[in-house]
Batch of 3 targets.
Target 1
Amino acid sequence: MSDKNLRKYAVAAVAGATLIAGCGNNPNDHGDNKAAPTITLLSSKAEYVTGGDALVEIGLPEIVGGATPTLHVLLNGAEVGDAFRPDPAKPRHLVGLVANMKVGANTLSSSYGGDSATVQLSNYPLSGPVLSGPQTTPYNCQTQDFALPDGSKLGAATDAACSAPTKVHYLYRSTAGGALKPLPAGAALPADVATTTTSAGANVPFVVRVETGTMNRGVYQNAILFNPAKDAAPTPLAPPAGWNRRLIAVHGSGCSSGWYVQGAAMGVSPYTGTYLTRLGEGYAVFTNTLNHPTNSCNATVAGETTMMGKERFIETFGVPAFTVSVGSSGGAYTSEQVADAFPGLFDGVFIDATFPDALAIALSSMDDKLLNHYYTSSQSGLVGEAQMVGVSGHKSARAWYDMAVQSGRTDPVSGRVETIPTAGSFGGPYLAGAFNAAVPAAQRWDALTNPRGARATVFDINRNVYGVDAKGYALRPFDNVGVQYGLAQLNDGSITPDQFLDLNEKIGGYDGDGNYTTARTVGDAGAIKRAYQSGLQLGGGGGLAAIPVFDLSYIYDEDNFFHYQWFHFAVRERLLKANGDSKNHVMWRGGISFADLFGQSTPGMAERAAVNAKAQADGWAAFIKWVAAYKADKGAGTQRDKMIAQKPAEAVDGCFSNSSNPQFIAQTQTLGSGGAAGSCNALWPSWSFARAQAGGPLAADKLKCELKPVAAADYKVAFDAARLARLNAIFPNGVCDWSKPGVNQTAVLPYASFGPSPVNPVFDASKP
């Protein structure tokens, strides 16, 4: 059958019933139909096609009377209509994978017995970039070290973009249980293959197809139930029988040392642990090494990579009913940031051990390190440790020091020693300029011996957003001009006016190399604005505004390793400020300690583990019920309206009793400690942070404050003339006015481009 006849056959298969029913029934029918077909991209936005192909849907107008027209679909003038087949789920629609696009601009047009429709497509190489700016250099390939499901390695990279051949493996769950096993070659499945019943009710062999390949210089994996003994090769119109049409994006964890490497591991495998359970339920899972912050602490690249990864999945298996993102710690903030800055990729996020973003950790830790430096180096002796803990906002000195240790990710000087107590900490020593072992010593920055080398900081890995100074080093958004450290303690009498003045007089700041300075640090105004626009500083008013955010504690430890509860509340506050309410944010509290996590038997360990298990299971059920309900709502209203209207009764704030049989306590979550016995704040108390004690917002969202003149009336203690003069000398330009928006504070710009995409341009990092 010729291509033309095939296209007529496909059109007839889609539209035949309508044609027969409509023939002769329209009094206005003269056989002259001029309606145009519609063209819809299913795999990506038209502006962001990658890899040379796109899954496209053609909607056909109704032709009443006359012969069935021939569908023509042209890519850059060449016929590609033979790629299209009828969509059995949507009458009068065809779906096809349009391939062989050129890099750059492409024109896709369609005609069907009348007018034509045209869309412009922008295609980018599978190796990237699309909108994240010039790719990081140096960059170290690790495909040769990436372990495949059968224990072999992906193999040496074939080019400078760290590409490697795509490989597919099959794994199965044995009736004996345990981890997935490699499926033996052969036409028949082994006798011990277990079966699983999916959430859609399909009863299928528990065999998982794992595809491993490279994109955007990272290594990706897709995992899905698939029976190679029965299922045909997957296509978007014929996906595996076991797929429940739901997709999970997995993000990893960490950040420190997350630079200049491709990554030899995902951080979280898409076919082990929790995801083995999800696969058995019919979910498909996708991820990439660049979605693991320990490999790449760059949320802009993570969003771009997620966009490309979801595109690849859809082109292989079809469009999911919905896509949700999951992540813990660094994976939590990556989920949030990608969801907010890249609207439409996710329909909900399910997170725990939450932070708003990597920047929140970096900036809070820089404040705490300044406090530690003041305390350990000051000769005045005016402020003792207990008072300093109050100024820090944390529960204990250990908590304050553990937060200060995390500032190593902002310090490029490898091997720098800081006087920060670490005894009894799970956080380990202060690690400045920390690199993955795969980064050769010759590539690493040194101010004297290698000033053009790679700098190991959370700022430098995001240099495309922040911009660079004359030396080529990333500009920084950290600013503490006008910040009155210890303001709350001054006002409540826990430190004296002289102690307050001494602290703020000597606190100082940092230079661009992380060295202490006697002067406060002035953040770069452009870097600050771009942090907001890009979503490196989570705003909450982008894609997050219209999807469920389900937030669990998982780790509850206010004494160790910086995963403190106030970060969860900061996320909620940002959603509230951006959208007028936080109805889409649900917080469940209670979890394990770091001692539990590191396998140290402590009192209550079993009970806390039970809390975690119940929170994860019940939380996931409530979350998925919520996402499925609002996605199924075809009524009028915005997505946010539907999402809020379809919120299930069980998706409410609360915490768990700390017992071997945890009970859910429905209660609005608030920052604080104490309260009635059995209340959430009594069971799972929370503390604060240094900027909040300085009068700043719980949202921790003002990178640089607007200033106002010093006014004696603003304090609950009296300053005599000499002390007031000293206060004015400390703050010659004024103190923070936290009632006003921050300097250059602005909303996130969805799909903000730092090059090469010309859409939504923010900053061309390739230009000096």
Note: The radius of gyration is 28 Å.
Target 2
Amino acid sequence: MSALTHEYAETHRRSWGGGADRRTTQIGVLPGQRGSLKKPRPRSAAQQLTHLLFDRDDRERVHGGWRGLLAGFSYLPDLTPGERTAVSYDRLRLVNSTVDDPVALAHDARLLAGLHEWAGFVDGGLCTLASIHYNLFMGSLLDHEVYGRDLSAFTSMQRIGTFLCTELAHGNDVAALQTVAVFDPATGGFILNTPNPGARKFMPNTSLIGGPKSAVVAARLLVDGEDQGIFLFLTPLSDHDGHLPGVTVRQLPQRTGTPVDHCLTSFDHVWLPREAMLEADHGRLDEDGTLTSVLGNRRKRFLRSVNRVTMGKLCMSAGTLGMARAALTIAVRYAHHRHVGGPKSGQRIPVVRHRSHHGRLLHSLANAYAMTFLHRTVMDRFVAHEEAEREEVERLVAVAKGWITWQAREITTESRERCGAQGLFPANRISDLPGNVEGGITAEGDNLVIWVKAAAEMVFGHQVDPISSDSRPAAERDLSDLRFLRDLLASVERTWQARARTALRQGPSGDPVGRWNESSGAALEMVSAHAGRLAADAFLEAAGQATDPATRKLLTNLCWLFLLQQLRQHTGDLLAEERLTVEHVLGLHQTIDTVLAELAPHMMTLVDAFDLPDEFLAEVPIANVDYLDHYR
């Protein structure tokens, strides 16, 4: 640890209030929580919303420790990119020092996603590094048989783990990657090689910053010249003296978002021992080089090898969730502190009084709640799914990841704009968030690409059912009926599916790309409507879980706003299909305005429920009523 990063790390330890003792606190339990016999006080509305937002009775285990730990991490925009990256590595080690069992963390999907949810808005670099080390690297090792391999160097972070899959010439078509691992019958090992410049591994964090590193490398296994498909190989990259022989690393220019040491990495005939290959039922190599597998083709073997990318999508979604909620909290608090001229001479009113201001933030708040509830629902499904449901759940995770991260981009951008010029200053901790969200949009599968794959599967392999059995005509239904609004979303989904099917059937024969081009636009609209409908279902379920009438009313109104804004862009289709009436369409704007007026007085409660730590908010000038004192 450098002197500079050691200084900041010590500051962070002191800011936790527990010194060395805090570093050994279990992740699921905060100091002072054991053995309390105090009678619990009634929950406020914000506390009840927090309970629903953050995994209910599992909240302290999944979120409590991360929230308390990361609250003490200060924002350090004045450091150079390299210095900020080094601090992120030091923080990763501090996080690791609080974890009783890093192996258990890599296995625990909820806890791992929780780490990303709280790290994302505090230190985007830490969020990225944690995702790579715990999920992609450690997770890949644990998902394969490890032959009694000693993992202590990785669990103690004597060595940082990274993941090398994407190549310079093969990003979204990573199944066509060209890095090779040639079976060496003389030694029983493998020769790892980068055959051309386009096969260099693109963007892994493989520099010497952060200390010695090892990688899980995706490479094409060649046995006697025959391509057996892509497998993963555990490969040491560097030690305390530098990169190992045969490993060439060139650091890439800075990208948007929090700095991480992204690099180009190549291998020049690097020998690896037999145990370097990660094996499981999807592929095992006998001593003579014979491959056995329970899967019938190379593509399926590859997808099983990189299965941790699915969990990575949940982690990326979680990270951007935290960013969106933090941006909204800052923007809403500032909107209450920032005063502008009122209608009377000399009068000053908070800018939040204006519908043009609070309306946009409330729409974003409705989306943020919907995103959070959707993530919880998808996580539940992911944790509980059986092997036979694998493909369906992987598609569900991909659809949710695309929708959540795209919504997070809109929310962080909107929130930054609502803070005006103050939002451009890094000290207010909101200007970096849109850039950090962009990383989540691209990582673990570019959003558009994974949605195209989902769309192709869903055109004929998907059915949408109504949630309500109410068969009354549209004229007898009302825009205040949330079940009616939800079923309208399902109608939109079915409409676009029908259009995609028709376009695919009528596309040019003998031209698969041409046929898909005719259908893809409608198919992607279907996926978008599907994601919105899934979020609405999760929102409705959460609102039904609220036990306090006032809290239920608040959450129901927010869900109502979400449903109305989801339907707004589809009124033409719904009117043409007679699922909405002219009166419905003409009254939609006024209905939305009515809901906004109902919700506007409760904006602080809605963001207080996001439970951002006081230590974090205290470091954000515009999040506090005395923000003008910052300039004295």
Note: Residues 1-39 have pLDDT under 50 and may be disordered.
Target 3
Amino acid sequence: MTLTSRRSFLIAGSATAAAVLVPAASGTATAAPKASGSTLSVGAGETHELAATTRVSLLTIGAGGRIVAPDGYDISLTVDGVETGQLLTATGGTATLIQAGTYRGDVVLTVAGSHDVTYQTLTFPFRQALYVGSDGVDAAKSVLSAVQGGKVTDTAARDVSIASTGECFNGVYVESGSYTLQSPTITLDGNGRSDFAGYGAAVVGDGSATRLVVDGARISNKGVVRTTVIADNGANVLVKDSFLRARNGVLPADYQATVETPYMESVPWMLGLDGNVRATNLIGENSIATYLNSTVFSETWGALSVEGGSGLKLTAINSHVGNTGDYGYGTYAIGDATVRVLGSRFDVGSYATIIAGPAAVVHYGDSTREAVAALNTELELGLSKAELASVPVRSTVVNSGHFGYMFFGAGRLTLDGGTVVNSERATFLNKGQQTTISVDGSQGARLNPRDGVILQMIELDDPGPVNVNGKMMNIGVYTEPTTDPAKDSSFDVTAVHATDGAATFSSIEVKGDFYNGVRGGRNMVLTFEDSGVEGVISATRARHRVPSIDSSTFYELGIVTNTVQAAVNNGVVVRLNSGSTWTVTGTSYLTGLTLAADAAVRAPRGRTVKLTVDGTETALTAGSTYTGALTLTVA
């Protein structure tokens, strides 16, 4: 490995064996460790302060023995170039300690300057193989014995390998600097601690002055919240031509599931998911993460996550994204995040995207030359003309084992180009949220729900966390209501409200059903422009398959059966604009229907459709608007 810098670097292999050990402060054991040649021994119950980086061939630590660094420094252990031996001292804690045992080989104890990162109420003592600051690589904060092979300079690291079998060790941390990781191989096996802070991630870009390019990487992590790539605090991170994979670890036996983010180490099951590691995370304010021609997979939970913050931009271009397990999402959109998926393939367990609002914007479309060039400018990706020209034009394909998209909060979703969404259940699952869904089929977009439901609206079935001794724990239980909802006379089921669940379909043929099973105060508003729809569109009584759902039956969330019935507080307003036709396949209860002069409502061949308005049979006439209790039946 070649290291070049304006500062003095510690070259792996250059530290003297058995460097001076300073006794710990008063009140702890002070006996000197036994050191002979390249052997270092710390007795049982002894605590010793290591003042300088040390290389030995044999390290033994007795039961209860501790090796610590002076104030302002942290210690890391590598054996044959692999970080190892370090574990968290307590569940929910932040500190780590080298475990008692015997370590043989090229044993290096690195004393590096502290790198503390505060997230909300906790401070995490980061240790990383390579720390890059505004002036380039900072050897004083790096564990360079964990950087194997390749070449490292102040601007780039090429062909390096980083491996860890301990806990909470980071691969590369770039803070307020510009850096390129070219063809790195990073393998972290063991638990992390927080993917909101990035504690234990393979690669972190941090700070608004950070511009990080990860090119040709192979990153494979296994462990609780052992994330592959994180962009935070305004960093701009571009990952291209890379392979990223994260597999679940084993949660501590005494871990208690919580939604309190400083302590969260597993997905809130109320999303209908399980798992304890996300492949990536985008956090902070104005951070940007772009994945180009890359493969990103989590086992469960999520592949491309956006969590908290504001002004976040997540983009996937010509990438393969998904989950290797039965449950998980491709992307997550919260706050005012902008999420764009162009020319990519999603193979997901549960959802292509969870939209958690309140002002999230999500777009699935084609990776056209114009779209990619525009993103190159907007996101400051730095792609050359040759690189832009080499990006193939592709359409997006989603294959989901459950739903297509789930609205857990308000948001805007656009599907266009040749996007094809294949899902086992409803294409759109709206859990009682304000939505703006737009589907443009003019370039071949298609929706293929296997259960025949295009849009399912239900009441939010998240039971929420439970306050236990001042902490919000994930032990709630969702209980299915057994009574009919009471009529809210103040809510107009015939009107269109800004807070409704709205969807517009343009230049597309849609085959499937639309159900509004919300119990109170949310209409379903459907607009068809030059489109055909075939199916049932109705207010409904939606019931889960089981009467109660807890963490052991999380997979039942969102899955309902529908019994069509007249609207109570869940109006259904349908607007068939110019060139649109609705083929009604079964009894449908509406509260508003508008037909353009060239629009039509009809029944399948050989059958007839009948409309009643407030119980009175009424002719269906083009150019008319009907409001009230509308029932369409097919005979």
Note: The chain has a mean pLDDT of 94.
